[in-house]
Structures are given as structure tokens and as C-alpha cells.
Amino acid sequence: MKKLNDLYQIDAFTSEPFNGNSAAVVITNKLTDDEMQQIAKEMNLSETAFLSSSDIADYKLRWFTPTVEVELCGHATIASVHYLAERNLIGSNSEIKFETKSGIINCRRENDLNFMQLPVPEFTEYTGDKEEVLKVLDIDKTNTDMQVPFLLQSGGNLFVYVSNLKAIKNMKPDFREMIKLCNRDTGITVITVFTKETLENNDAHLRFFAPAYGIDEDPVTGSANGPLLLVLRKLDLIDNDTEGKQFTFEQGDFTGRKGRVKVTYSPANNELTIAGNAVTILKGEISF
Which residues are identified as catalytic? Predict the structure, then answer.
């Protein structure tokens, strides 16, 4: 029988328990791929993060949903930095590198804030049927500007602009049809819906859907919030001069998991960074 000590459940992109996006985090070199997947299924969170030793970085980091391994996960990385700090494996002001399927990810911890540098993605204009996408999302086309392109990120995240917060709040996507859409030759794997209208004095509000990965709706998604800043720039919805500026995006309010993600993009250095707080809500061990 194997036993893993110090498995934590951490809410990321919040400083309040039971908000943000929850991830399990554990550090071990003893697990097979199948065991990681089984543990992620048992935890039944949007992602479980597995830290292990690395020859090319400080740690190797892998992320699993309850059904598949994914190549990038923002909130579980933020949770992992918090985990290492809480276990005194890194200091309160430290830089750390993770070996991942998306390459080396640079992160840091500054006091209680956790930072993650994201790979800078490419975008193309979506050339498929926009009205079909809106129907799947349950968004009336009167609630968007059909002249604003839908942008498809490398990797398959489709960004859909909506003109008002009410439409985002009231939408009830058809997840079966969304899976069919993603399984067709559309290039879509997940969908981010966003608006410039916000609940608080922030810069944008978004919801994120990934039913093809076993996650109908993710509460707070770092890997969508970061690229959203680039989408806003490309669509001329914000000033392109983002150098030295920090933006705050909202997510999770309509699922009861309020989260806030801080995002910066340096055009001079071509660096995209997300940041957020995190709070540990559970510590335990697992035997199998």
C-alpha cells in the first residue's frame, strides 16, 4: 500500500476559503501516470497538481483533470507555489522554475502573492459559424457585436466577446452540443466568454467552459485570464500600451466561487504574467 502525506487542497485566486478555484497539490516521485489519474479522479477537482524532482528545473509539475492530463493549468500552478511556500520549501520572496509539458514555467512568490509567467500564445480569427457557437452558448446575437471577431488561441481556446454582463450571467450552455462542436474539425477545444462590463471596478469579466476535458465550467481559469489581456489588445477593447500596467479580471461569481486574477503584459519583453492569492482549506494524506 502506498501512502502520500501532505496532500493539500488549495483555493487559488482568492484569499477567502471556498472561493476561487480549488486544486489538490502533492509532492512525490512514487506515482505512475495511472495512479496520478486515479488520484485526480478521486479528488474530483478541476485539476490536481503533482510535483516531483526535475533535472532541469526546481520541480517537475504535471496537471490532471478527473479524466485527462492537461498541458497547462494556471490555478493549480498558483496553488503549487502557495503549497511550496506553506511547507517552507521556498521562501516568502522566491523565484521558482517548473518543468512542464508546456516547457519551463517561471514563477515567483512575493509576500502572499503568487506569480506565474504564461507562454505567449498566437491568435487567429475564427472562420466557422459564429451563430452556431452563440446558440451552443445560449447567447442571443443581440448581446454581442457580430462585427467583433471571435479569436481562436493556439491550443483551441475560442474567445467570444459579449457586450453586457447580464448575458454572461444568464447564459446556460448546452454542454453536449459544445462537446460535439469541439470534436468536429473546428479547432475549438474550450471556450472563454468575456465582457468589459464588471461587477466591481475591474477590467473584464469572463466564464470558461471545457466539457471536452470533463469540466463543464471552470470557476477561475488562469490560462484563460492571461491570454484575455492579449485578446482585449487585439480587438482594440483596451489601450495597447500595457507596459507597466496591471489589470484585474473577474471570474467565478456566477458559480459561487468568486475569484480575481491580476494580469500584466510587457510588449517590450513579450512577457505575460498572471498572479493571485491562495488559501489552504484542507491538509491530509491518501492511501491506496
Answer: 47
